[in-house]
Structure of squalene synthase:
Amino acid sequence: MGKLTDALDHPEEIWPLVQMYAAARKAKAQTRGSPDWDFCYSLLNAVSRSFSIVIQQLPPQLRDAVCIFYLVLRALDTIEDDMTIPVDVKVPELVKFHTRLRDREWKYVCGEKDYRRLMLNYPLVTQAFLQLDSVHQEVITDIARRMGKGMAEFIERDVETVQDYDLYCHYVAGLTGLGLVHLFKASRLEHGDLPDDLANSMGLFLQKTNIIRDYLEDINEEPAPRMFWPKEIWGKYGRVLEDFKDPANSAAAVQCLNHLVLNVMRHAVRSLEFLSRLQDIQVFRFCAIPQVMAIGTLAECFNNPQVFTGVVKMRRGETAKYMVSINSMRNVYLAFAHFACIMIKKCNGPAQNDPHATELHVVLNEVLERCGEGLNVQPAKLQADGLRGILGKAATRPAIALSSIVLILASVVTLLVVYGILADLWRSSQQYN
Ligand code: IN0
């Protein structure tokens, strides 16, 4: 029912949903006929619905390397996340993980659901990994080595300071960005200057958004919570992180949340800079779509107490709309400006008394300014248009066509029904005569 009312409230999202459904079916139907690659792609489809579509749209010389890179990182993440593995076993396992990449027999019993399936069938991933270009293999191994070491460091200590928070996110996501840039260049798809600092910001923007959004899921994790919110920030608003679950502490919890949103939004301009330097359209879409989803999620989470009671995320239809429309830097600027405007509106309204409202305003205006420069439009004009969802109109013309067809069909059916009733009335009046 929710889906139906969503569709009626946002008819412009119906066509993108249909397109995404078709793309997902196409991606699932593609088989290579070899058990290793078929396993890798079916697992990719199972663990990341929308992102797997974008990976499969990458040029052939890059697609397989990114698919394996993604699964390798998921495997490392599964070991890190499994709170049933004792620390003295987990730490050496993370540090050694990169050596397992060439071991055709290695597998590990851990994780849950699809991730457990990944770990139990890991030899199939290894078999596919060993078929990649040697340069791609080297990049993936190097990143897995640095990431495993970094994760191990944070198994033994908590994220206390903002500096720790940036370092932890660098290990688990920033390094992914650095590795991806190497893969793009090795595949000869990108030639421009893509410095480590910008690639790192791309990863931090995604990972910090996930950490904010996943508060409730992470704190309720069994057998023990795994938290990444830095104490230097949350310590200003509560005694322990669990306190934020209590609705009595909702006001302090939301202030903490907004402080974290301010922290992550500081990466947005650098992400835009990175994206603006990409040349290949498929690489661009692969990088840009997750960034747009992240700022969309942040706009939903900002000043929203529901982060502490449930899952806050973008509607499926909205995700689909951005999946199909992010095909130029212009549309990225429009999407970023739109979500920045939603946050500015909250800053001026319900969040106006937040201790960080002014700082957030400054950062959001910087984002708007960057978008304005890219679009050759005054930020004030962007702000005036931003809330109307500028992208929505340009990107969803086919959906408007679809809703017109629905309207015409509905009118025809109504006319037929009315005609039927009138004809019946006329016939019965003839009988009486
Ligand atoms: C990613 C990133 C990713 C993609 C493109 C460019 C990047 C540059 C720097 C760093 C990361 C980059 O994107 C995915 C997106 C994703 O998985 N989305 C999920 C949705 C979700 O909520 O999980 C989906 O199902 O669609 C990402 O989040 N990560 C990731 C992992 C591996 C690779 Cl190769 C690329 C995870 C992380 C931790 C943020 C790096």
